[in-house]
Amino acid sequence: MGTMTRQPRHYLNRAQVEEYLGLAPGSLSKYKLPDPDVIVGPVNDDGTIPRGTVRGWTRETIDRWNATRPGRGARTDLH
To answer: Which residues of the chain have pLDDT under 50?
Structure first.
């Protein structure tokens, strides 16, 4: 009688998102990322995330966000 092993879900942290999108390290600090798919670690009572807590995104979430984010040099003030 064997036990079925469930594969853990995989999420990308901020550095992995930058690598996945081919961006330089630290580039995402200029962007508002989508809400994370998972948060690992403590969250403050007011909902803020303290240092040391990790946010994670699926590739699908990042692909959707990346498809709709303004491109380099885009004028977001013109509608």
So the answer is: none
